[in-house]
Amino acid sequence: MQGKAILVTGGAKRVGAAICRRLHAAGAHIAIHYRSSEQEALALQDDLNARRADSAAVFQADLLDLNALPQLVYSAVKKFGRLDALVNNASSFYATPLADIDEQQWHDLLGTNLKAPLFLAQAAADELRRRHGCIVNIADIHAERPMHGHLLYSVAKAGLVALTKALAQEMAPQVRVNAVAPGVIVWPESEAWTDEEQRRKIVAHTLLKREGEPDDIARTVAFLIQDAPYITGQIISVDGGRSVNL
Questions:
Q1: Can the peptide bond before residue 182 be classed as cis, meaning omega within 30 degrees of 0?
Q2: Which three-class secondary structure state does DSSP give residue 146?
Q3: What are phi and psi of 208, to 5 degrees?
């Protein structure tokens, strides 16, 4: 990945930051997108640039604003002179029981998890075709086995899985499009997920009987970008076997 440029949405922290670090360590230039995590994004940028000068840059954008998406891609290309890969990692996640769903939640969860990846792919298509690049979407194992009480999130990730396969058709043969579907990697930040007994029960459903690490996702993303020239339209679950043991 020496000299290649990669845009990672939601790259400032958690799994996104792990993806940025892994790809940077492989030699890539990293465009770190963030919406509100400015402090974390700048700290990551400084750390990566300390390791290799002028190899990382931050870009702020609200992915729900469709007008901001072409500008985000343009800014990344302008900074590094090229764009070789797009990692659609940014995501909203919270419970939406059927009785409580409203239109704002629909726009937010479908917007960040499905709409933004589509229109970012559209904005980046010409440059990715020029570079024979690739897209990696971060899906979820609950795209196929919905999470109870999280109806809209599950629907959005199911749409992202379908989008991944459809984009692989639309952008072939120049651009490969795949997705990674995490399982138990990093617990959500809301209080609803702080119960240790609930966490223990979830981990018990993994075949490996343990949580994964953000770098497990980052390694798989790096593999799909760097070492998988004949893989496209695929969804790789990185979940310790949980999806086959629910």
A1: no
A2: coil
A3: -90, -5
Q: Which of 27-36, 85-94, 102-111, 184-193 has the lowest mean pLDDT?
A: 184-193
Mean pLDDT, residues 50-62 taken together: 98
Tokens of 160: 């992202």
Task: Say which residue the tokens 């997705």 belong to.
Answer: 179
pLDDT at 190: 62
Name the nearest CA neighbour of 182 among 134, 242, 246, 94. 242
CA torsion through residues 162, 167, 173, 176, sign: negative
CA distance 105 to 152: 8
Question: What secondary structure letter does DSSP report for 147?
Answer: P
Radius of gyration of the chain (CA): 17
pLDDT at 214 over 80: yes
Helix axes 116-131, 68-80, angle to 10 degrees: 30
Residue 10 near residue 34, CB atoms below 8 Å: yes
Active site residues: 153
pLDDT tens sequence across 11-21? 999 999 999 99
Q: Is residue 116 within 8 Å of residue 69, measured between CB atoms?
A: yes
| Dist. CA 127–CA 119, nearest whole Å | 14
Q: Confidence class of residue 241 from pLDDT cuts 50, 70 and 90?
A: confident
